Amino acid sequence: MKHMTTRVLAPAFLAATLFAAPAMADKADDTMRVAMAEEILNLDYNYTTKREYIILAQMTDTTLFDLDPRTQEYKPAVATGYAFVDDKTLDITLRDDVKFHDGSVLSAEDVAYTYNWIIREDSESNASGTIGRWLDNAEVTGPNTVRFHLKSVYPLVLRDMAQRIMLRKAGTYDEGGTVDRDAMAQELIGTGPYKVKSFEPGQELVLERFDDYFGEAPAIQTIVVRNLPDIGTQQAELMSGGIDWMFKVPLDLAESLGATPMASHLSGPDLRVAFVVLDAAGYTDADGPLTKVKVRQAINHALNKADMAKFLIGGSAEPIHTACHPAQFGCDQSVQDYPYDPEAAKALLAEAGYPDGFELELWAYRDKAVAEAVSADLSAVGIKVNLRYVKLESLNQARASQDIPAYIGTWGSGGTADTAAIARIHFSMDTDRNLSGDQALADEVLAAEQTNDQDERAEIYSSALSTIADQAYWAPLFTYSANYLVSPELEFPLDPDGLPRLQNASWK
User: Fold this and answer.
1) Considering only CA atoms, which of 67, 95, 53, 94 is closest in space to residue 184?
2) 14 lies in some domain
3) Same domain for 100 and 144?
4) Are 237 and 386 found together in one domain?
5) pLDDT confidence of residue 358
6) What is the pLDDT of residue 26?
7) What is the DSSP string of 52-69?
């Protein structure tokens, strides 16, 4: 059965349509107003993780390198060049004209301090897990040069430098010997194209173009970010001209409002994928159904991924059969696929000793329609699903306690088109996301990060992904499509990695 949704226009839309003329956004004050549902509480991306914070950091901060979302090539940013002295020693040369928002000039000492702070045990930075895997220390070697000493061979150093570490002034987090991890949380001093003009946590952030930015100046002078948790409120604000941009828009709403003169619907690719993780290791039940490979294969056959992608996500969403995004390096598409086949699923369940199915507790935290579709498909082959739709925090806590037999997860890989960005976090043995219990698989995944030979890395990932597919540790679902509603007066380019870059917006 196809999983279809019905287009229903929110009451705010109906009211505006019936009783008001379209109120187009006014670009006269050169201010773009955007809406975000998630509360913005901390402006320092070195201490946050959510996509909303990534979007903001790209405006307020800069990194050593930029990753071109179209070519996946690393380009100079604060760094002008690099050279590997050997496999574990990297020299970086810096620009001499990079200014912080307070007017001070960035130095090699600032760069070394930032990286050394991140890996300090008392920093407790959200980035420390990423950088701490490979960085031993950063050393100032000249007025505009820094040497990075690596713990081991690591092929993703430039990626991490381009995407994870926001540069800070020396002493930012421990001035006078006192540790202050919130030093940049509200009064951020960055080096990006926009500086913070005002910030009311959980309510509004006002960014103003930084005239001394070393790179290309953004087209729009001011960006106001408003926290509007309700999608209906965002919709009404867009129609009245209160905001010019909203994202994570449900497909039906995006198509409905985008068909009017009040807004433009933009849809583009996204590196985020959805999947069902299965407790193959038996953490919740040592002899349970999910420990049997035929049961896990049956679950894969039971899911109508194509209809979920088409009718619940839409746009460029596509079904997948790998534990990665097809656009990512190393994401081998020749691994075992399990086509939608309910009868094959029932047969496998019978062979596994469950001709009448079994009870399954399935957790989910987003895209309720998808969770319900997965539940319906599994129920259709005899698996009696108890759907637990919870907040992400609750799911994370239960997963950390190994109390989840199966859950629907998503992963955006931080916009990185490399299988490494999804493999380690889900299949190494030091993550609670790994429910496979497969040590050999974990070793293989880590091995792909211990060589700079791209052909060798591709072979390793191909082998690891084959194991995941053959053992059906996951039930991959689909890629996402990014849906936006924007003012008809706004030009907002979409990038292939699905990451919104507000700094690239302009007025028509």
Assistant:
1) 53
2) no
3) yes
4) no
5) 97
6) 56
7) HHHHHHHHH---SEEE-T
492, 477: one domain: no
Structure token digits, residue 261:
């003169």
Q: Which stretches of the chain score pLDDT less than 70? A: 1-26
Q: Give the model's pLDDT for residue 2.
A: 39
C-alpha distance across the termini of the chain, in Å: 43
Write out pLDDT tens, residues 417-449: 899 989 999 999 989 999 999 999 999 999 998
Domain that holds residue 374: 270-481
Residues 107 and 223 both lie in one domain: no
Q: For residues 474 and 340, state if they share a domain.
A: yes
Q: For the domain that residue 92 is a member of, what is the CATH number?
A: 3.90.76.10
**What 3 state SS string does 249-301 have?**
CCHHHHHHHHCCCCCEEEEEEEEEEEEEEECCCCCCCCCCHHHCHHHHHHHHH
Q: Which helix (H) or strand (E) holds 480?
A: strand 474-486
Query: What is the CATH classification number for the domain harbouring 382?
Result: 3.10.105.10
pTM over 0.85: no
What's the rounded Cα separation, in Å, for the pair 380 and 296?
A: 15
Residue 20 lies in a domain: no
294 and 432 in a single domain? The answer is: yes
How many Cβ atoms sit within 10 Å of the Cβ of residue 275?
23
Rounded CA separation 13/463 (Å): 51
Other C-beta atoms lying within 10 Å of the C-beta of residue 276: 22
Cα–Cα distance, 276 to 426 (Å, whole number): 12
pLDDT at position 15 is 40
Coil, strand, or helix at residue 130?
Answer: helix
Give me the pLDDT at residue 71, please. Answer: 82
Same domain as 276, residue 227: no
